[in-house]
Amino acid sequence: MSSFTLPIHAQPTNPVLRLFPDGTKLQANINYAGDTLRKHLLDIYQPANLVSPKPLIVVIHGGGWLVNDKYADIGYMGNTMSGLIQAGYVVASIDYRFASQAKFPALIQDCNQALAYLVGHANEYRIDASRIVLMGFSAGGHLASLQGLSNNQQVPSFFANQSKQQFAIRGVVDYYGPSELTALGSSEDPKAPEAILLGATPVSRPDLSRIASPVSYVDRNDPPFLILHGEKDEIVTNRQSKLLSGWLTVQGVKNELIIVKDAPHFGKMYDTEILRDKVLGFIREVIK
Q: Which of 283, 232, 224, 288 is nearest to 81 (CA)?
């Protein structure tokens, strides 16, 4: 069983800590926005005997922008998460407000506010703020991609109180995230998650869709991407990842797209030894 330390505001249990290596230290349920919202919490997992600052991996969960929490995707990615800690990285998993609570761009504002908190407290948590990698799953993949691609453009509306900040994002690992909202099969359905995210269907508000679509921010100065998507994903078609990879390639941004044979939208097929090593290799390369 992994050992851990808890700040006074933490709840007593963490359902995924057991997946991390023995000795992993947990700083749990830290409010990154200075308020009382439960969706403004993050967890930090640190390697045992951490002394010097280490690269930061920020995990952004999926759930159609409407459900799940900072434990959700870690639960089936135990081998990969364990590998990150064994490699000596600090891992932060963040929560953000659901689209049913706050429309876009609130969710990306939360992601940037969480990252700003982590960078601002880098010394306290032994984080090397000059080496950051984002990792997102499904809706979290969308947010990680959006955050990584817009980072060098400093879009004011993507930050709480319009307080623009640029981060040292070295790479993005995008697991089956939407990249172009008007190209989703459900983009005309007013009850679809992307319609709830925007407050209107992407087709009826292409202007909002463009602002919320990661592909809108691709330019030659973007960080490298590793993109993973299932061959048999029936929730987010892998055409979304092919489109993102295509745009990155056109702009000369280093990227690799892996279509995982027979894989659905999420699950343990993304946590195999081969894919774990691919992810770790990508991170190792971009943080040099």
A: 283
Domain containing residue 245: CATH number: 3.40.50.1820
Give the pLDDT score at 13: 85
Is residue 197 assigned to a domain? yes
> What is the Cα 157 distance to its own chain's centre?
19
- 12 lies in a domain? no
% of the chain with per-residue pLDDT over 90? 94
- As given in the structure block, the two tokens for residue 162 are 């319009």
Q: How many domains does one find in the chain? A: 1
pTM: 0.95
Q: With respect to residue 1, please indicate whether it lies within any of the assigned structural domains.
A: no
Q: What is the pLDDT of residue 11?
A: 45
